[in-house]
Specification:
The protein is an alpha/beta fold and 251 residues long. It has 7 helices and 10 strands. It folds into 2 domains: 122 residues, Fructose-1,6-Bisphosphatase, subunit A, domain 1 (Fructose-1,6-Bisphosphatase, Chain A, domain 1, 2-Layer Sandwich), CATH 3.30.540; 112 residues, D-Maltodextrin-Binding Protein, domain 2, CATH 3.40.190.80. β6, α4 and β7 form a beta-alpha-beta unit. The radius of gyration is 17 Å and the shape is globular. The structure holds adenosine-3'-5'-diphosphate and magnesium ion. One of its GO terms (biological process) is 3'-phosphoadenosine 5'-phosphosulfate metabolic process.
């Protein structure tokens, strides 16, 4: 087994365990609304940090729910974690939320696990799924609350169906699982929102990039990584051209 595969299996184990914790917390009925989301963020983060400290002592971690430390910029291996992606949806009792555990190596999204606890599944780079058939009409997943204007325009032009969904991980895994064909986001996100989903999508053989076609690069000083495109490789050139046309039209 390669070292990276051991890291993938660890990412999967931790994402699954954190997902179970989050389900238990919600089922307890102890918290609701924003208090539930806050408790979920904190409890999942604490568990994930302890697990990483135990299994990979001394390695750098960048988490949505922890203070950032610039020491990570000197590290080749950095765990990039979103303990609860789709906090809003989790606190609303919906099923579109996820746990993200990724390992960036030299800025590349090398390892990732995305747990979808309500569905009882975890997708990870140790066993990336085969690509399913495309949908007809084409389905584009977009943020429920902040759909990318580019995605809305492209759907209108091409007759694609827009599928609003919470959580970057849930949307990316919808493409990996064949429930959707395209995930196009713009306007804002951070490294933890996309690192694990991008690692899994890339391992599954999908196209992954920024919406200008440049690569997704992680463990940067500035963790703002505001846009992404995940789709079939053969669909990428036309989608990137449409995004360019949209940007030119907006000028
Ligand atoms: N414009 C924006 N600015 C900052 N973060 C954004 C954003 N749009 C989406 N996100 C983040 O990306 C994740 C998925 O969002 P969405 O469901 O809207 O697609 C959410 O992460 P969290 O739930 O971890 O905060 C959300 O906060
Ligand atoms: Mg997130």
């Amino acid at each position: 087994m390669s070292d990276t595969n051991a890291d993938s299996l660890l990412a999967r184990r931790i994402a699954e365990a954190a997902g179970k914790l989050l389900l238990t917390l919600r089922d307890s009925g102890m918290f609701s609304g924003k208090a539930l989301g806050d408790a979920g963020d904190q409890i999942a983060n604490a568990m994930i940090l302890r697990a990483l400290a135990q299994e990979r002592p001394g390695e750098a971690v960048l988490s949505e729910e922890s203070a950032d430390c610039s020491d990570r910029l000197n590290c080749s291996r950095v765990w990039i974690v979103d303990p609860l992606d789709g906090t809003r949806e989790y606190s609303e009792g919906r099923d579109d939320w996820a746990v993200h555990i990724a390992l960036a190596i030299d800025g590349q999204p090398a390892v990732g696990a995305v747990a979808l606890p309500e569905m009882g599944i975890t997708l990870a780079t140790d066993t990336p799924p085969a690509l399913p058939r495309t949908n007809d009409p084409v389905r584009m997943v977009v943020s429920r609350t902040r759909p990318a204007p580019e995605a809305v325009a492209i759907a209108e032009q091409t007759g694609a169906e827009l599928v609003p969904m919470g959580s970057a991980g849930a949307k990316a895994m919808a493409v990996v699982r064949g429930e959707a064909d395209i995930y196009l986001h713009s306007g804002g996100q951070y490294e933890w929102d996309s690192c694990a989903p991008i690692a899994v999508a890339r391992a599954a053989g999908l196209h992954v990039s920024r919406i200008d076609g440049s690569p997704m690069v992680y463990n940067m000083a500035e963790v703002w990584l505001p846009d992404l495109l995940i789709c079939r490789k053969e669909a990428a050139p036309a989608l990137l051209a449409s995004v360019r046309d949209f940007a030119q039209g907006a000028r």
